[in-house]
Design brief:
alpha+beta, 6-stranded mixed sheet, 17 helices, elongated
Length: about 650
């Protein structure tokens, strides 16, 4: 019998053990891959919804501010008109032109007009005065029956001037001096004004923006709703607004039945709510794309695990090479995908450009290869170089980012405003080895819009603080100035002026001549405080006021007399006056220890003015303690006469 080698007892056991190790390795790796994928998918979904929540609430806040400012600008303009119409009826042609200019200045306005107490239009910004009445409109009935001066926002109305358009009417009541109803100031805002602004936002196919009145009436819906909807019974009004004026929750849309995430915010100062809704599918659309990519990657990894079970040594090397390639490709992909519209540059420690993305050519008209090796400051405006340099010095570590906005030259030599974000690309112990990554974005258009908005706000502030006829500050600004200066100054004087026999002047020469007279007097009074810390204002009708901080009673009296004599020297004829020309009377009061507040100080000046009128007009009176004092003509010669200056106690 031939000799046979005995079987290797460790062979089968080794093979079984190796198989078990491979199976266990494959199972453990598979479980890890699936677990990581599930965790990442859940975490990414949570992050996507959180990001969507932040975006929705930020947009709702911005739109709430926009709606409030839109209404507020009109409210301010209408308040000035209501104050004017309370005291007088302006000449139609001039006031219509003023309304047209106001409507032109405020882009949100379609038109603005004034109706009388019967609902008939008396003034209008339109080229042709509307012939219809508004007595049947709800807002007219509201102001007729409600004696307050609150701005009212109407429900959506169909225009009677143009039947094709829908509008929202802002209205204020005109209350006459006797408290009676004098009509309504109404301003129309086209719904297309808001829709045109709202359509600029990307909210997805099922997203929407709504502007709702606080009683649930839908004012604006973008995209346009198929029918008018009252939302007072929805959870927004019955539940959420009662808990907070700002919020975010998940709903089933009453407009299209789609599940959406909704953010809302009540507008400041006005009874409106802005809502922003995005469908859950839209918020998770990027998440789904990422998830599909992750599934593909997970499948590839599982295949690699199966291959590793058969050829561990070979596959380890292969997988290491593949993972390196995937990381590099992913880094390049994210760099291009996230910044494709921006310019990416790499700067070394000597401020020289080492890398410039090709997007520099469409954005700034420069070629990337021409910039390599040049200083990054070559194309920066000289006045902005210091701020750019400081932006890089503020960087502390790799995680920090520094942002700066500056002017940059384009390829054709023109200037562009750009926003640049600097970040450390490498962290080196030696300062000469540092590199900076910079992402540049063209913000020229945004800068222009910000500048235009600043100018518009400045113009609106001026209109709200100035009397339209005389050019002096108005009563509201005067009250605010007096209140502030009264608290700040221990010594302050108030002067009140009234044009003598002005009603007779108007009856004799007409209201247009009366307006010119008011303007001449206002100019003389305004010149008296032009280069001082004082303030001149139209107090109402033919009355004017001057506030003189840090001025004693005697000094204020000199100012009053100077103004009175200056107006007398104008020589404006007035046959309704016994003197034959326009004169003024003045009341002067200075703050004393017995003066209670600024209102009491104005009352003292008014008492002195009344005394000046009672004693024959064309004189200045001062109010001191409980005694009245006056000066008749100040020992100044006029028309060949000399009147002695005297003070009566």
């Amino acid at each position: 019998m031939p000799y046979r080698n005995p079987p290797d007892p460790g062979g089968p056991l080794r093979r079984v053990t190796s198989t078990a190790v491979v199976i266990i390795f494959a199972l453990v790796m598979t479980a890890c891959v699936l677990g990581v994928m599930a965790w990442k998918a859940f975490d990414a979904k949570k992050a996507a919804l959180a990001s969507g929540s932040s975006d929705i609430q930020n947009l709702a806040h911005s739109l709430s501010e926009h709606a409030s400012h839109t209404i507020q600008a009109v409210d301010i303009a209408m308040a000035g008109m209501v104050d004017l119409l309370k005291y007088r009826d302006p000449e139609a042609g001039r006031f219509n032109r003023y309304l047209a200019e106001t409507a032109k200045t405020l882009p949100q306005l379609r038109g603005i007009g004034v109706s009388d107490a019967k609902g008939n239009w008396t003034y209008s910004s339109l080229a042709e005065m509307p012939r219809h009445t508004i007595s049947d409109r709800n807002y007219f009935a509201y102001h007729r029956d409600t004696p307050d001066n609150t701005l009212r926002i109407s429900e959506p109305l169909q225009s009677r001037v143009d039947d094709q358009s829908s509008m929202i009417v802002l209205s204020k009541r005109i209350t006459k001096l006797d408290g009676s109803f004098g009509g309504v100031v109404a301003a129309a805002i086209d719904k297309d004004y808001f829709n045109g602004f709202y359509r600029t936002f990307q909210l997805g196919p099922d997203g929407g923006i709504s502007l709702i009145r606080s009683d649930g009436t839908l004012l604006i819906r973008w995209p346009l709703a198929d029918k008018s909807t009252n939302l007072s019974k929805t959870d927004l009004f019955s539940k959420h607004l009662k808990l907070s004026s700002v919020g975010y929750y998940k709903i089933i849309s009453p407009f299209d039945g789609v599940v959406k995430h909704l953010g809302y915010e009540e507008t400041p100062n006005y009874p409106m709510v802005v809502t922003v809704a995005m469908s859950e599918d839209w918020l998770l659309s990027e998440w789904w794309k990422t998830l599909r990519t992750d599934v593909i990657v997970a499948g590839v990894l599982l295949c690699m695990i199966l291959m590793l079970a058969a050829l561990l040594a070979l596959q380890f090397r292969f997988r290491s090479k593949t993972e390196r390639a995937l990381r590099e490709r992913e880094a390049h992909y994210r760099l291009l995908a996230n910044n494709i519209a921006d310019i990416i540059i790499l700067i070394d420690a000597h401020s020289l450009l080492r890398y410039v993305s090709q997007s520099v050519e469409p954005v700034l008209g420069l070629r990337a290869k021409d910039l390599i090796g040049r200083s990054c400051f070559d194309l920066v405006h000289a006045e902005d170089r210091e701020s750019v340099m400081q932006a890089t010095t503020r960087l502390g570590d790799i995680g920090s980012v520094s942002t700066v906005v500056f002017r940059h030259y384009r390829g054709d030599g023109t200037l562009a405003w750009v926003e640049s974000k600097f970040k450390l690309a490498t962290e080196a112990s030696d300062a000469t080895g540092k590199e900076f990554l910079c992402v540049i974005r063209d913000v020229t258009e945004r800068k222009r819009m910000e500048d235009e908005l600043t100018q518009l706000n400045h113009r609106l502030t001026q209109l709200a603080a100035t009397d339209g006829l005389t050019g002096l500050t108005n009563r509201r600004t005067l009250d605010s100035f007096l209140r502030r200066e009264y608290e700040a100054c221990e010594e302050i004087s108030v002067l009140l002026f009234d044009i003598d026999n002005f009603k007779g002047y108007n009856d004799t020469y007409g209201h247009q001549a009366g307006d010119r007279c008011l303007q001449a007097v206002a100019k003389a009074i305004g010149n008296a405080t032009a280069n001082t810390s004082g303030l001149s204002a139209r107090y109402g009708g033919e009355e004017f006021a001057v506030v003189l901080p840090n001025t004693s009673e005697d000094e204020a009296l000199k100012v009053a007399e100077s103004i009175r004599l200056t107006i007398r020297a104008l020589g404006i004829p007035n046959t309704a006056s016994s003197r034959g020309y326009v004169t003024i009377s003045a009341g002067v009061a200075a703050r004393t220890r017995s003066t209670l507040d600024e209102a009491a100080l104005v009352g003292e000046a008014d008492t002195a003015l009344y005394e000046a009128k009672r004693l024959g007009r064309n004189r200045s009176m001062v109010y001191s303690s409980l005694d009245l004092q006056y000066v008749e003509s100040g020992s100044i010669q006029h028309d060949g006469e000399v009147a002695p200056r005297e003070r009566t106690h």
